[in-house]
Amino acid sequence: MELSYSSPVNITTGSIMELSYSSPLNITIFTLVLVVFLYNFIHHLTSPRKTKLPPGSFGWPIIGESYEFLYGNSQKFIGDRMKKYSPKVFKTKLHGEPTVVLCGPAGHKFITVNEEKLFRTWRPYSLQKLFRAPFLPDTKVVIPRETLVHVTKAPGFIKTDALIEYAGKMDSMIQQQFKLHWRGKPEVKAYELLHRMAANLSSRFFLGLEENDPRMEKFAMLSFGMTQGLNCIPINFPGTRFYRAKKVAETMRKEVLQIIKEKKAAMCSGVQTNDILSHMMLSGNSETGRFKTETEIATMSSAVVVSGFTTPSTGLSIIMKYIGERPEIYNKIREEQMEISSSKKPGELLNWEDIQKMKYTWHTALEVMRLRPPFQGAFREALSDFTYEGYTIPKGWKVYWTVTTTNNNPECFPEPEKFSPTRFESLPPYTFVPFGGGIRMCPGKEYTRLVMLTFLHNVVKYFKWEVLAPNEDMIGTVLPVPKNGFPIHLHPLST
Ligand code: HEM
Prior knowledge:
Blueprint: H1 14-19, H2 24-46, H3 66-71, H4 74-84, E1 89-94, E2 97-102, H5 104-113, E3 119-122, H6 125-131, H7 145-152, H8 160-182, E4 187-189, H9 190-205, H10 214-223, H11 227-230, H12 241-268, H13 276-282, E5 284-285, E6 290-291, H14 294-324, H15 327-342, H16 352-356, H17 359-371, E7 377-382, E8 386-388, E9 391-393, E10 398-402, H18 403-407, H19 445-462, E11 463-467, E12 474-475, E13 481-482, E14 487-492
Parallel strand pairs: 2-10
Antiparallel strand pairs: 1-2, 3-7, 4-14, 5-6, 7-10, 8-9, 11-14, 12-13
Protoporphyrin IX containing FE binds at residues 121, 143, 148, 152, 158, 304, 307-308, 311-312, 315, 374-375, 378, 434-436, 440, 442-444, 447-448.
């Protein structure tokens, strides 16, 4: 007898009868299964495709891979993961945030052209806590765009028109630094002296302090505690880098508040002032429609001062190391600089035209920054989901671009590991980015060029030097600092 699903009674076995779909219980089960199946099928058809995240690892819970990134070697961190996951894009977790690293010129270009459309700036929590703009509801901003555009990028401060005016003053201040701290000393810790010099220049040109103002030296000494705390895990506990940096930031803020009061009094009595701090005091704020408070101004101008000394001092230390270890490069630079020097009257200071003649010296500085950038990379935040190289990067993720994966690309720089200043005759866009690019390009680039070239002019004029610890480690990776202060032996020269 043929087994029938519709047969109410199966004469062969009772169990077959229990399986019969005709029973009310079985009809209910069948309907449920069908409903679940149809629901899943329709959901599958209508729901968005599952996101394909980039390859990579989030590392440890909460901190992710931050420790290795912040306190190891960030160039190696990035290079290892490019080899392991993909040379174009990989995911990780930095500063406790899911992060995607976009590598090479293509990654940098993608960020640059989509700035403020797909991305906005994001600064690590340590920086946010030290210098965030207190008047903005958005705590992720450190120095708001408005302030940057109207102040640091405004004519009259660190753009060319102002730098033309600064050239002679900068030369005289740098010569004074050599007299005070370099001459007559067989051995110096060059990084410490460069840091001190850059901090002095920053407080002179950005805060408008007079050269004999003792606060310039105070800022210079304070600044030592700052650099390592800018990019770190922000644990505010005595003894940590962040704790030290926070104390420095607070002291700086108090000092700047005092300077603001003095400037206000001077302005009221008709004195003309022309520096970034005064400009901040006088300009309104389009984000809030009101003038900034003194504390807000003090916080932001401290951030600009700090930007002004951290990278130039690290950059110059690395440049001195490369030149000190390569006599043929040193000789070419000295030749260029002595030619400029011999064209001047005794005691005459450098001017803007002299700076333009320092081509080989600047190309050397650029080549060092290509190989060992003083600033390793920067973060953005994704404003919406976006697709890159076939992967989906979710809204809110942090996006990191790196200087070295761009500057060491063999397609743009043949034999990228070779030190060759002459390669800077012409370069395609997005390939060389020690100062970033697009609308977030460093506003301090031209100022840095002036500081570096004026310093290099003087240092090769007065000295030859020997690097005493060629394998000295660097501490910190985003803004690296030589562990032992970069000791060198100085050999004075007659000029
Ligand atoms: C060797 C020296 C320097 C290097 C290598 C350097 C590098 C950079 C880079 C790569 C960026 C882009 C960051 C990003 O994409 O978010 C940047 C931004 C910036 N830099 Fe510099 N910088 C240097 C010197 C200076 C100086 C002297 C100042 C002083 C004013 C300065 C102020 C700033 C500011 C305020 C920004 C943020 C710009 C923005 O968000 O639009 N930098 N710098």
